Each structure stands twice: as structure tokens, then as C-alpha cells.
Amino acid sequence: MRIKTLLTLILFQIGLLHGQTSLKEIDLRNGQHTVGFSHYTKIDSTRTYQIKNEFNNQFIHRPISISIWYPADIKNDGSKPLTILDYLEILKEEEEWKNLPNEFLLDWFPYLWNTPQNRAHLIEKTNAYLDITAINKKFPVIVYAPSYQASSIENFALFEYLASNGFIIMSSPSKGTDTRWLEGGTTKDMETQSRDIEFLLKEIHKYKNIDSDKIALMGYSFGGLSNAITVMKNQNIKALVSLDGTERYSYDILEKSAYFNLSRLNIPYVYFAQKEIPEKVLKEDKIPAELNYKFQLYDSLKHSNVYSYRFHNLTHSYFSSYGVLFGNRDKRQDMSDDKIMAAYNQLSEYTLQFLNATLKNEESAKEFIEESPNTYNSTESKLSKKMKKLIVPEFNYKNFNDLALDQDYQNLIPLYKQTLAKHPNLELKEGMLNTLGLRLSFDPKRIEQGIHVFLLALYIYPKSANLYDSLAEAYVLKKDLKNAISNFKKSLELNPKNQNAINKLKKLKK
After folding, report:
1. Which one, 188, 299, 312, 436, has the greatest CB density within 10 A?
2. How is the beta sheet containing 60-72 ordered, strand by strand?
3. CA-based Rg of the chain, rounded to a whole angstrom?
4. 195 has pLDDT over 90
């Protein structure tokens, strides 16, 4: 099934009932921080783009709209919280209808629906304040990828909740390669959104209050697919959160990418899944029944801890703030508004705890995500879970080198003995050690480190003429001629035909 058809079914369901919801009733209670919000546009000069509804042949550099939520300080300066209408002003801009009169807003964008309930949402106050001062402290960052062709602010209630609990969230809209419109959920669309995510990953380094060593990706629907391929390209991501992401429904799109590599998705990954689609809906909407149980990516992952939670009171549309507040209800499968809001609250809590565990290393959060429920097919509870622990890869020379680097290549022989006792199959090949030692020795600031590597190598390979020769070269670079001569002589004892050692000794003796 093509993703365009799938998205039509699970994102734009036949709405037969109007929702009766509100931010207050969702009851996302803020953490200790006030929430600041900023929105601005940057230009990616490496790509061109067209404003489709201007109906001309003009190309511009690709605009990247950026929304950011952050822990902030609020002073008595008369600041007022944003309203939902303030967020929808950003939606208009990102949909390239910035000057659309607000009186047309709910009629213009079909997924908002002009109902009395939705009109009442516009004046609701949120928990964010525009452009207030950020707290001068580093916080982990979550880069968010929206659903198919959606706005950067589609999950604003969740973002405010996370920011109030000590995270920074950065998001940009999902849009096509050349215009606002995507092609239909193709691999090209996925990689275009992935490239926009990478633009944000570059942008975070401009902020002093972002801890760039603690980065998570989070995405909803199509954004989950784009995030999966981004993680496979970028090994600096520490955690991955998917809100009923399309990687579950369209694994074939993921596989077609040139960057597809399961072994590189090796970080903690949580997938929050919608309730089982009822048989009636499967039949009427021609949805393959396997979508209820097949999850090829989850089943294929081996090198990370992976979790999958099913929310029995949420269908796909309600994994976003927009869906909960503005979406029409499908009476064939949607739960009551009270249950939907409670489930969205629970989704937000589990997202927070997962991020606390993976980015903040909080023990209580780790315990939280490891707890029951653990029966995935249970329909009696509001939530069920399954999980897989990573298959620990064999400890190899790269892992040892990471340990050596952590201690600045000092005391390598004791480190090797300790490591070998834990990992008896560890093999440090002579050639690798020789290359590493030379690489370090050629750096004037790291000669001593290179010498330590050679001393370890000779502990393992004491009869290697080549290693003595390389160690001697390192001492030459250090201008320690006594040790250089001594080690060239040892090399010649083991290999009398070592012409390099013969030549160097002649020079050194002169």
C-alpha cells in the first residue's frame, strides 16, 4: 500500500463527531520551569524552493521555519501567555498563507474544522510565553519531526510540558523538496525531511543553553520515518521517540534509502503505538490487517534497547495536540473525548520519563519505563508494552581504544590486563596498534601518547622488529635520541635486514 493512501486513512479519517476537548481538561501539569517560546526563519542556501501558490517561476533559497520551546525566567514585565490562536498564526506562515485573515482560519485549513468547539479553542491560554529570557543553564534538546506536511507546532502542548520539565524542543515544518507539497510519502520526501532535521541539528550549536551532547529525536507519523533514517546517518543522537511513526507502516520506504543501515540504529528507541484498528475499519477502508501486528523495524533491531507501548484509547490522529483539540472523531473506532485526553496525558508522561531516563540518566525514570504492563495484547488496560534488550556486541579494539582515549592513553598495560580479564576474546592486532601509535606520534602534541601505544604493543608482541622501529621513530620525534638509538638496535637484533634502522642509526651516531 502506498503511503499516501495510508496517510489518508489514518490521518484524515472520516470525521462524524465533533470533539469536546480543551487544554485545561488534558491536564498536563507543568514542571518547575516557566516555558519560553520563539519562532524564526533561517535560510538553507544549499537548496532552492518555490512558493507554489504564487504561481510564478521564481526560485528562492529554502526557508526553514524554526519553533523552539525552552525553560525560561519570567519577570514581572507584563508578559502574557500565548493563546492557541497565536500558535495558529505560525501555522498560517508555514502553510504560506501568512496574511490570511483570522476569520477564514478554520475554514481555510480543512484539518482544523470550523465548529463552535474549535472556535472556542482559539482564545485558550497555553503555558508558553513569547521570547522571554532563557535560563542560563544547559538543557538536553529534542529535535522534532512533524507528521506528513504538518506544522512545527502541531504538538505544542507536549512541547510545553517537556520544556517545563527541563528540555529544549526544536521543530520545523514537514514540507516537500521543491514546494510546500510532498510527493506522497516517498523515499525522496523522507530524505528531504531528514535533511531539514539535520539543519536543526546544526542550528542547536548556536545556543549556549543547549547541551549538544544530549540530543534526542522525536517524530509523529511521517516524522518517525524521517527520524529513523536520520539516526542511521548521525551517530551523535542519544535517543529516539516515535509517536505512532510511519516506520511501522511503511518499512519499505525506509529500506529504499541509500542510508538504510539497521546496525546504526543502536540507541534507546521507544515506539508509542495506536490502538488496534477495528475489523470494521480495516474492511471498509481497505487497510491491511497486518498493520495491527506487523512491525518489521522493531523486530529487526538488535543493537539497542527498544520499547513499544500500545495506547488502547488512542487512534493515530490523537498523538498530536492538534488532533486532540481540533480533530473530528470517527465513531467507528474513536474513544470518548475524556479517554482521549487522558491517554494523551499518559503519552506525554511516558515520553517525559523515557527522555529523563535516556538523556538525564535518572534512576527513577529508568525504573518507570521498565515497569509493567508487559502484555502487549491486553485490551483491558489503557496501556500495554513489549520490549527487547540489546544484544551486546563483542568487545573489540575500537571499544578498547575508547577506554584508552578516556584515560589519555596513560597506563595502557594495566588497562589491557583488566580489560582482557573481562573480555578474554579481545584481540588488538599488531598492525592496528602500530598505525595508531604512528598517527599519535606524528602529532607534536601527542607524541607521548603514541609512545604509550607502542609500549603496549610491544608488551603484546615483544618480538616485533617493526614495533621497535616505530617506537624508535617516535623517540626521534620527541628528540629523545638515547631511547631512539636503543630501540633501533633492538629492532636490528630481531631483523638484521631492517634498512631503515641501519640508516637511522648512522645518522643518529653522527
Report:
1. 436
2. 81-83, 125-130, 34-49, 60-72, 168-171, 139-145, 210-220, 239-243, 269-273, 306-311, 383-388
3. 28
4. yes
Contact 218, 162 (CB under 8 A): no
Peptide bond into 278 cis (omega under 30): no
Question: Closest Cα to residue 23, out of 147, 159, 131, 152?
Answer: 159
Task: Give the residue among 166, 150, 160, 198 at the shortest CA–CA distance from 47.
Answer: 198
- Total Cβ atoms within 10 A of residue 173: 25
The candidate with the shortest Cα–Cα distance to 157, out of 192, 128, 123, is 128
- Whether the Cβ atoms of residue 231 and residue 267 lie closer than 8 Å to each other: yes
Cβ atoms of residues 250 and 228 within 8 Å: no
- State the pTM of this model: 0.81
What whole-number distance in Å separates Cα of residue 171 and Cα of residue 174?
A: 9
Q: Strand 139-145 and strand 168-171: pairing? A: parallel
Residue 264 near residue 231 (C-beta atoms within 8 A): yes
Determine the 3-state secondary structure of 430 from DSSP: helix
Q: pLDDT tens digits for 65-98?
A: 999 999 998 765 678 999 999 999 999 999 999 9
Q: Is the dihedral of CA 291, 292, 295, 296 positive or negative?
A: negative
SS3 for 127? strand
Q: What is the greatest pairwise CA distance in the chain? A: 96
State yes or no: pLDDT of 350 exceeds 60: yes
**Distance between CA atoms of residues 384 and 344, nearest Å:** 15
Question: Which residues in 236-272 are b (16+ Cβ under 10 Å) and which e?
Answer: ebbbbbbbbbbbbbbbebbeebebbeeeebbbbbbbb
In total, the chain counts a number of residues equal to 510
| Residue where the block lists cell 602500530 | 434
CB contact at 8 A, 154 and 146? yes
